[in-house]
Amino acid sequence: MAIETVRTTRTSFDLKSASLPVVAVVLKTTDTAVLTAELALRMADAPGFFDNDPVLIDLGPVREADSPLDFPAIMALLRSHRTMPVAVRGGNTAQMQAALAAGLTAAPEAGPVRTERRAPVASAPVPAPAPGPQEQPSQDLSEPPVVGLHTVVIDKPLRSGQQVYARGADLVVLAMVSFGAEVIADGNIHVYAPLRGRAMAGARGNIHARIFTTCMEPQLVSIAGIYRTTEVAIPVEILGQPAQVRLDGEKLLIERL
Predict the structure, then answer these.
(1) Cβ neighbours of residue 257 closer than 8 Å, sequence gap 6 or more
(2) Would strands 23-26 and 83-89 be described as parallel, antiparallel, or unpaired?
(3) Which terminus of the chain faces fewer neighbouring Cβ atoms within 10 Å, N or C?
(4) In angstroms, rounded to a whole number, what is the distance separating the alpha carbons of residues 64 and 131?
(5) Contact 209, 187 (CB under 8 A)
């Protein structure tokens, strides 16, 4: 009885899954003229914020709008600010069809935002002890349970052009983040060295995330999409000092530690 064997040959490529950070542009109006004016005003304060970054257009806030969206015009507008619109999500059936016809791809709907009261870097969630014979486990229904984040640790300097994204995690950097380098985390960012590049915490909307560094000299800091660049000077009593960045409502605060 003959046994056939299949020869495995080496191919010139591999297919692997990949997760890449993208910037989400959440549209709150269908008026392209208003969007053009407000985006130009915001980008005037941060001319170097984008560097051909991929962009996801989020239509959640305009899903029920009656007026149509001009996707070719919106995509051209975003490209004019050095971004690359690649995907769309959150729209109604007509909006999604128009977006796909314009060349965008459908992205999965956004998952729930992880929130936290505290996010200690080096600790893991500790399970509660099992209830005794006479005890009943308590349940707090007033708010969703806190989900602990794991931690990504980088112990080498990050040079200009390098980027690290801690997806679903806190990020700890034990060496310098140089000007032109970028650190991104869905949770907190800790830099135990000079922070001179761009740091973006709470990248998926976590408004409780914070940025900590032993030497605050950033090119840009951002929490949950609210950012501050070198166009707004850091006070001299904070510049170069141990400091933190946090949100107070929609205001970004930089405070000395």
Answers:
(1) 212, 241, 242, 243, 244
(2) unpaired
(3) N
(4) 47
(5) yes
